[in-house]
Amino acid sequence: MAVLTVHPVDHPMLRRKASRVSRVSAGLRTFVDDLFDTMDANRGAGLAATQVGRPWRVIVASVGDERLALVNPEIVRASGAEVADEGCLSLPNWFGPVERATEVTVKGRSVDGASVRRRLRGLLARVVQHEIDHLDGIVFTDRLVDSQRLRFVDPRSPEASRLRAS
Ligand SMILES: [Zn+2]
Questions:
Q1: pLDDT at residue 1, rounded to an integer
Q2: How many folded domains does the chain comprise?
Q3: Active site includes 159?
């Protein structure tokens, strides 16, 4: 188990486009475990490899009982649209409204190298869109529907307990 350092939004890694992973190895599986540990330690709903300084197309997400790790994730279908508050572990305690598809079909590989194709809805769909953006060097603040509505939420406030960053 290892909790990695999450880089802040002004770190150059957050603007870097990540490379496809050509081979799923034991080292990659260990890295994915570390991504989960880092996400959990920060009470996040998702995390992308670029946020911890690795320029690889790897993401993890966790919403409710669902825990998902995807290598080379790609959205192949998206439908619906919803604006909701979003936050990022690279910009702790700041939240703002972002429009995302409400339902996406994502494909990629599991950490075992198997092909994965999943239809996701709701918060999990939102988190996966946010993480794939990270792999392309895009941060949620680039997508705010209204930049005036980016706001700091006191981590001790009741509202903070309802919001999940990724
Ligand atoms: Zn993020």
A1: 78
A2: 1
A3: no
